[in-house]
Structure formats: structure tokens, C-alpha cells
UniProtKB/TrEMBL annotation:
Residues 70-119 form the HTH-like domain. InterPro entries: HTH-like_dom, Transposase_IS3/IS150/IS904. It comes from Spirosoma pollinicola. This is HTH-like domain-containing protein.
Amino acid sequence: MRNRKRNLKKSLSHYQPTDLRLRYKLVQELASEFAVETLCSVLKVSRTAYYRYLRGDSYQLTSEKAEYQQLVEQTFAKHKRRYGSRRITAELQEKGHSVGRCQVRTLMKLVGLQAIQPKSFVPRTTDSTHGRGYWPNLLLNQPLPKAPNLVWVSDISAP
């Protein structure tokens, strides 16, 4: 038994269920053999959250937070996934809602919303589809110049 306590982290490190309820149940099952504090640290679960789970006080969204979550989702969809937590917070505050950026960020994480970076604007200055002709490169087949000021080049690309 002493040996198991020493190697607890090694034996449970591969077992990390994504559902928190499964982690809480595992802590509950192993609580008779190991310290709850150790189990919670190994399974990366907050001790406070575990005890709240035991009491039945699991995290539930209040009606106000549920409303904010709906507003965040609507704003995010309205701006075609381009707005992050800062811009959504600014827009909701303009509309008169008292919501902070960290709260908006948390609500976005809960739903799985992540803003996308739009493609950067690249100006297209050359119009190669014009009907006018172009001059060929006359220096292409010539030898390299031996001294300065032997070859001059200019370009007028104005339409």
C-alpha cells in the first residue's frame, strides 16, 4: 500500500477522462485508499469543485449568465466569427449590458467559440489583363555591363 501511494501519479497519469463527472467518481472511489487532495491534484480537479459535486452543487448557469451567453453567441454570429472577447465585450457594453471581458471569454470557451483571423489584404497593383502590348526585355540576352552608366532602365506602368 505504501508503494501504491508513492506511484499514484505514475499509475493514473495515463487515465484522464475528459468528463469531469467521471473524474469526480474516480476520486470518490479511490478516496478510501488515497488522500483526496492527492487524487484531485493527479486528476487535475479542483478540490472545492469536487466537494461541491459531492453536495450536489455542481456549476449551473444562472439566468443572467445564460442570457449573456446567448448575447455573446448572437454577437459572434452577427460578425461572422470575426469578433473576439474584447470586441464582443465592447459591443455588449455599448448596448448597456454590464459584462466583463473575462466573463465573455469564459462564456466563449464554454460554447467553443473562437474568432478567426481574416485573410490580410494584399493590394493588386498590376493589371496584366489590359489590351495594350508590352515591350520585350531587350537586356535578357545581352552580356552583363562592364561599367556603371552603360545601361539604363525605366518603367512607366501608368494606365
